[in-house]
Amino acid sequence: xxxxxxxxxxxxxxxxxxxxxxxxxxxxxxxxxxxxxxxxxxxxxxxxxxxxxxxxxxxxxxxxxxxxxxxxxxxxxxxxxxxxxxxxxxxxxxxxxxxxxxxxxxxxxxxxxxxxxxxxxxxxxxxxxxxxxxxxxxxxxxxxxxxxxxxxxxxxxxxxxxxxxxxxx
Length: 169
What we know:
Blueprint: E1 5-12, E2 16-18, H1 28-38, E3 42-46, H2 47-53, E4 61-65, E5 77-79, H3 82-96, E6 101-103, H4 107-113, E7 119-125, E8 133-134, E9 143-151, E10 161-168
Parallel strand pairs: 1-6, 1-7, 3-4, 3-6, 4-5
Antiparallel strand pairs: 2-8, 7-10, 9-10
């Protein structure tokens, strides 16, 4: 049986997810959640997202989607398309006993993966920053909210935010 495709994303109220290939907020609580939701699972991301992180993330099998056939950083698998990456994620996930294949960005990869995702773990950041990268608008008719937990801004979190877990209906 195929592993479900799950998206993990932090998006502002205006759907901005990044600027100049980088994060635009400091949310330690969200980074801890990202780690918890991706640990022990195949993690698919685009090349620019991978380069912004700079290295494979420990405890995850990273699969980078790139059109560059010579892109072969140590510690990650490369795939020429999202379809190829998800197929590889299925193989790796089955081998390591994962419960899902996670898609972790960026904007183009999210847009391609959204129709395939059964769950979206959204961190809705209550801010409206300028940015050049956006998460696609979710169609409320296609998802039901499983849970919503609000968090205030604080010493480790620059803005208030909500963790919203959605499931395709």
